[in-house]
Amino acid sequence: MKDWWKDFFKPVTGEVMFKSRAGKPTRLEVEEVLKQLRIKHPLKILDLCCGEGRHSIVFAQNGHKVVGLDYANNFLKVARKEAGQLKLPIKFIKADMKQTSRYFKKEEFDVAVSLYNSFGYFDKRSDDFKTIKEVSKVLKSNGYFVINTINGSGAKVRLKNPISMGHEVFKNLFMIDKAYLDFKKMRTHADWTIIDARKKKTSIFRGSFQQNVYSHNEMKDMLKKAGFKIVKTWGVLHGGAFDERTSWHQTILAQKIRS
Ligand SMILES: C[S@@+](CC[C@H](N)C(=O)[O-])C[C@H]1O[C@@H](n2cnc3c(N)ncnc32)[C@H](O)[C@@H]1O
Known about the structure:
The protein is of the alpha/beta class and 259 residues long.
């Protein structure tokens, strides 16, 4: 399953992941990030792994200058179309997150965000660290990085045993999710089967993804090693307390203190 992230993010996986989060949930997520940043003036923001651009768009609607970066062409197409319809001057770039600095000037951004669990996808953990280093390069000194990802200890609780569940995401669109945690490698494995019975001809998508998970201390150590100091942690993206032992997600606000 090398580089699974190059093929997994298709329109139908996008629909399952993003459609129910459009509108109010996304606005609440962005509001929480801006509240934690406590900065009022317009910022230049990098939305790393922006997907269909749902956060980029709301950041721009709040007066910020935004660049979205993602690897999936089909998501970028949706993002560009929506930003165009809303007349928002957002630039969307196709790139691999571990090569971020190739696409921007040094210290170009005030803030970078990696939202909704877009981290830990690489086969080699060193590439996860590289991604953070790349973000640091394009951030101004004292700039901020907000990263939301799975919390390793919470994953051990939630995926103590393999899970297998199915539900109807939207009318006649069904999803079966099988997942387990490799406790030795601390890497999640998930198989998604999406059955789309909305048209005359039913179609089935099958895709798998894997993700390295990090404990809160490991995330903090990685960020510090890359030149950040930790400012704050909360749990799920739209706000809420973080419990190091049980929270499924960790959202960390870090500030760049050295290159
Ligand atoms: C879970 S989605 C989150 C998208 C977006 N942040 C959101 O919340 O709507 C993860 C995103 O990471 C992107 N991605 C995966 N691997 C990537 C890589 N190596 N470089 C850039 N983007 C990548 C995918 O295409 C997908 O859009």
